[in-house]
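Structure (tokenized):
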């Protein structure tokens, strides 16, 4: 009985500590909307990230945005998602890559994730990518180019494998959402 009580107290304390820490970390983002859930142990380049409302970021996230990362509303990230908005300059002859401390414009590009996107576990998203409204990225994918709206992308590199809806269902879906959002 005592062990159970102590264990329960520890779990409550950890939860409280995480919520308090997350409360203060939210202020470090460029923008952090309402109902955003993330773990304080995750790794973010806070000042370059804007997050909309109702966003869930699974544990183990690593979001590194050199220029900007914009996340829309109602977005879900599975665990261990990695977003990398920058690259190293590898074009200098006669220097080790680690010695190069300047970049060229194409090394760092913004990333945009629109509304109603689901990014599965272990996905890697690279610089310059846009995940359009309603798309799904399957677990383990490496996203190197844009994913169209309402598409499902999978693989390494990620490719569109199917669409979520046919044309008639997509129009019905959009109509229902527009009515709900009035």
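Design, position by position:
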């Amino acid at each position: 009985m005592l062990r159970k009580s102590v264990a329960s107290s520890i779990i409550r304390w950890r939860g409280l500590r995480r919520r308090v820490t997350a409360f203060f970390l939210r202020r470090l983002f460029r923008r952090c909307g309402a109902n955003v859930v993330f773990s304080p142990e995750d790794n973010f380049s806070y000042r370059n990230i804007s997050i909309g409302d109702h966003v869930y970021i699974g544990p183990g996230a690593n979001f590194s945005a050199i220029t900007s990362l914009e996340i829309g509303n109602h977005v879900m990230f599975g665990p261990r998602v990695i977003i990398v908005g920058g690259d190293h300059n590898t074009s200098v002859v006669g220097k080790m890559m680690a010695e190069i401390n300047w970049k060229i414009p194409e090394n760092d590009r913004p990333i945009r994730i629109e509304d109603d996107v689901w990014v599965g576990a272990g996905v890697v998203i690279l610089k310059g990518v846009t995940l359009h409204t309603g798309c799904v990225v399957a677990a383990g994918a490496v996203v190197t180019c844009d994913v169209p709206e309402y598409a499902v992308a999978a693989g390494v590199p990620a490719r569109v494998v199917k669409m979520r809806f046919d044309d008639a269902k997509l129009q019905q879906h959009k109509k229902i959402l527009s009515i709900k959002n009035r």
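Reviewer-requested clarification: The helical segments are 2-25, 167-180. The radius of gyration is 19 Å.
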